[in-house]
Design goal:
Elements: H1 2-24, H2 26-33, H3 35-56, H4 71-84, H5 98-114, H6 126-135, H7 137-152, H8 159-176, H9 199-202, E1 206-209, H10 211-224, E2 232-236, H11 242-256, E3 262-267, H12 279-290, H13 295-310, E4 313-317, H14 330-333, H15 335-341, E5 346-350, H16 351-358, H17 370-373, E6 382-387, H18 400-407, E7 418-423
């Protein structure tokens, strides 16, 4: 299975890169922290080498021994996995649900650093994320330029034109999800071509296209809320780099077009899945744009900093996003987060990992309704924007998946297809 290939090949590659990254930064740790820094680096590397060995030799998954705030929840979840196996031995790397062990690996990478001050705040994936941003420079300039030109006459656009622009930026945000470093095990995955040119040609590759539904939910929320409260959209972020930029442009468009009054972004509280967005990545991206020597890039950065200061953009993270649970457990495990999402008019879930957690990462029949696969997770109307990079997919028309499968066996994992899949949460 694709899961087997991921655990056998991709995850050890990612661990090897993490170890190499720490090696390369040895001098920097020494300059900043003296011998303590070098000692911490050695301890972290030995922890990670041991982890890689456990993974490759299919050892049992062990409870977390650190004192971090989420450790108890992780260990409870491991007990739950033990009980599921009905005494068929301990859950191990190759004998457990893929989603669980993959999340577990990233949590152990975090522990390797968090337990080794003074390098406990070092993000082993930071360089790759920054590189993705810089190597996508041309696409970034194209998108910022397009967007700033659009803003000049946004007030003159009629409803049809606004809808067209929304659909365009939704698609840029969707295909921005191809820029995923955990998928390429950290290899270059930057956006080289213009993100706007090929949209028309890409439409046939959107297997579920619910953009019309998003439009009507935003327009109706606007009409209903004209008298009283704000229209709020939440974006549950995926990758830093070009994808994050495409999400920020979409968010700014929602405000500038008055389709939304506030946008809440949800990122990861620890480095995750190689390229996932943390608070540092979020702020760093806006600072990079502000200080760029390109007029429209810096205009975006300055405006977005302003949105954060005014409070019309809010960034938040929550430890739930880096737990192994699927989202159907959110109301129970993180009731505060669930209650917050219930205040939203629309939740946009970016990327593959969020989709796997929305659907419980099961091997569903392709035609099972999305609503059913969500397993009672309905805090607010929600939509998944995702390019397919793992083999779970629901909500297709009868025969649609089988038909593609016949000509393209890799269709679910090669990132070529996408979905804009909506659930009304009724």
């Amino acid at each position: 299975s694709f899961a087997y290939f991921t655990i056998k090949d991709r995850l050890p590659q990612i661990l090897t890169r993490v170890i190499d990254t720490l090696h390369r930064h040895k001098n920097e740790f020494f300059e900043e922290h003296g011998e303590k820094g070098v000692e911490a680096e050695k301890r972290a590397i030995s922890f990670l080498s041991k982890l890689r060995n456990e993974l490759q030799t299919d050892k049992p998954v062990t409870p977390l021994e650190d004192e971090l705030p989420d450790a108890a929840l992780w260990n409870q979840y491991l007990d739950y996995q033990r009980n599921l196996s009905n005494g068929n031995g301990e859950p191990s790397w190759f004998q457990s649900p893929w989603l669980f062990v993959e999340c577990y690996m990233y949590r152990r990478i975090h522990a390797a650093l968090a337990q080794n001050p003074p390098i406990d705040n070092f993000d082993v994936f930071k360089e790759g994320k920054a590189q993705n941003f810089f190597e996508s420079q041309e696409a970034v300039i194209t998108l910022c330029t397009y967007f700033q030109e659009l803003l000049k006459n946004i007030k003159d656009l009629d409803e049809k034109q606004l809808q067209e622009e929304l659909f365009k930026l939704l698609q840029v945000s969707l295909w921005g999800n191809k820029c995923d470093l955990s998928f390429s095990a950290g290899e270059d995955s930057s956006q080289k071509s213009s993100p706007l040119q090929s949209l028309e040609n890409m439409i046939p590759y959107i297997l579920v296209n619910d953009m019309e539904k998003l439009w009507s939910i935003l327009v109706n929320a606007k009409k209903r809320n004209r008298e009283k409260s704000n229209v709020r959209v939440d974006i549950i972020l995926d990758n830093a780099g070009f994808e994050l930029l495409s999400d920020l442009v979409l968010a700014d468009f929602l405000l500038s077009s008055k389709l939304a009054d506030e946008v809440h972004f949800h990122g990861k509280s620890i480095p995750w899945y190689v390229s996932d967005t943390t608070k540092h990545d979020f702020n760093w991206t806006i600072k990079q744009l502000q200080s760029a020597n390109h007029m429209w890039m810096s205009r975006c950065g300055i405006n977005w900093e302003g949105n954060l200061k005014k409070g019309v953009w809010v960034y938040r993270d929550h430890m739930f996003w880096t737990l192994p649970h699927d989202f159907s457990s959110m109301a129970e495990v993180a009731p505060d987060l669930y209650a917050d999402l219930q205040k939203s008019n629309l939740l946009l879930f970016k990327g593959d990992l969020n989709y796997r957690k929305l659907t419980g990462d099961r091997k569903w029949e392709y035609s099972v309704p999305f609503h059913q696969a969500l397993n009672k997770f309905h805090p607010a109307p929600l939509c998944s924007l995702r390019t397919l990079k793992s083999d779970t997919q629901v909500g297709l028309k009868p025969g649609q998946g089988e038909q593609i499968q016949a000509s393209e066996p890799e269709w679910m994992v090669n990132g070529k297809y996408g979905i804009v899949q909506f659930d009304a949460a009724l």
